[in-house]
Design a protein that fits this description.
This protein has helices at about 55-60, 65-75, 80-95, 100-130, 135-155, 175-185, 190-200, 205-210, 215-220, 230, 240, 265-285, 340-345, 345-350, 355-365; strands at about 15-20, 35-40, 40-50, 165, 170, 305-315, 315-325, 335. With about 375 residues, it is an alpha+beta fold. It has 2 domains: about 10-50, no CATH class; about 55-370, Orthogonal Bundle (Cytochrome-c3 Hydrogenase, chain B), CATH 1.10.645.
């Protein structure tokens, strides 16, 4: 069998060998192939091989009407669908010159932050499994199911959440939304403390993650790394604060950062972000106004010729939607900027010299979702 690898096989010494990790490996979550050049268990070189589930979603979107594209953004990141919806509809609204009602903006923020918590809980559960800890998934899914029940009432889906429309929402909050959300927020902070005691501060976990996979701040910036993977390197860059969108300027929250840029810091940042998302949700519950949930949008959406790039802070970092309009019912060009691609690109820099088991720990700390890379 011919092996696709960037390594020159004639330069591999007798003590080295090539090992494929994935694309079926559990810790690559089924769709990512990592090619390793090893000397014993020590990583001498590493190459991520992507493209196993390429969907051509951008070209598909260019052949759909604007209002038909939103569901495709759900599938780019099945763990953070609302934030991806938001980036796309904001770009179209800017091209149309549409002003979204304030109540709809509050609703968008609430769903986006719930989605962020869901994503971080899934990361915690999967990362625990990757590291050999079976209990975290039971704890994390306990709270995640609560959010799924809330989101299902709004979107009709339990995993892929599709609620946003160009201009706002089709449906208002369900009757028991606030009651369910209040109940969830009453105990989530205590549950995060449990997560940290169970895994993040566990002596075995800290031994495998502290000082491992160190990503310096300047290297992270040069590679375009964003989200918790960047903030773990002591870089307080969060689009909700640094390039505010929607109504995020109304809320008081902290941009969570780490100190050393290692695998443990990236993990701790996500735990802190759950607490901050809960803080935003409490403020949104107290401040949400009554009123319309949908702006006046033309029945036939034909933005004037032009282009716009809209970006949001999703659970993995900066997601951007770039749209070029030629004045017709379909976009002339669409390009999505996915955070996982840039975050994965840095893996070679932070894994060479480590062991095979460390590759799992480092890669899991980047919280990759492959469909947004293979788009």
């Amino acid at each position: 069998m011919t092996i696709k690898a960037p390594f020159e096989l004639e330069k591999i010494s007798s003590d080295e060998y090539i090992l494929n990790m994935g694309p079926q490996h559990p810790s690559t979550h089924g769709v990512l192939r990592i090619i390793l050049k090893l000397d014993g268990e020590t990583v001498r070189d590493i190459y991520p091989d992507i493209g196993y589930i390429h969907s051509s979603v951008e070209k598909i979107c260019e052949n759909r009407k604007y209002e038909m594209i939103t569901p495709f953004t759900d599938r780019l990141d099945y763990l953070s669908a609302v934030n991806y919806n938001l980036a796309y509809v904001m770009a179209v609204e800017k091209l149309l010159g549409v002003q979204v009602p304030e109540r709809a903006e509050y609703m968008r923020v609430m769903l986006a932050e719930l989605n962020r918590i869901m994503s971080h809980l899934m990361w915690f559960a999967a990362y625990g499994m990757d590291m050999g800890a079976l209990t975290p998934i039971i704890y994390a899914f306990r709270e995640r199911e609560e959010i799924i029940d809330i989101m299902e009432g709004m979107t009709g889906g339990r995993m892929i959440h599709h609620a946003l429309r160009i201009g706002g929402f089709k449906y208002d909050l369900q009757k028991d939304f606030m009651e369910r959300l209040k109940k969830f927020l009453s105990h989530i902070d205590d549950r995060v403390d449990e997560y940290e005691a169970l895994l993040i501060n566990n002596i075995i976990f800290t031994a495998r993650t502290k000082g491992m996979g160190i990503l310096p701040k300047d290297m992270a910036i040069n590679y375009g790394v964003t989200g918790p993977s960047l903030r773990g390197s002591d870089c307080a860059y969060d689009l909700r604060r640094n390039a505010p969108y929607s109504i995020y300027p109304k809320f008081d929250f902290k941009v969570c950062t780490g100190r050393n840029g290692d695998t443990w810091d990236r993990s701790k940042v996500r735990m802190d972000e759950i607490r901050e998302s809960a803080r935003i949700l409490r403020q949104a519950m107290d401040g949400i106004p009554s009123g319309d949930i949908m702006a006046k949008v033309p029945r036939i959406i034909k933005p004037a010729p032009g282009e716009y790039y809209s970006k949001v802070e999703c659970a993995r970092g900066e997601f951007g939607a770039y749209i070029v309009s030629d004045g017709t019912e379909k976009p002339y060009r669409i390009k999505f900027r996915s955070p996982s691609f840039s975050n994965l690109s840095v893996i070679r820099e932070i894994t060479i010299g480590t062991k095979i088991a460390d590759v799992i720990a480092i890669m899991g700390s980047l919280d990759l979702v492959i469909p947004e890379i293979d788009r």
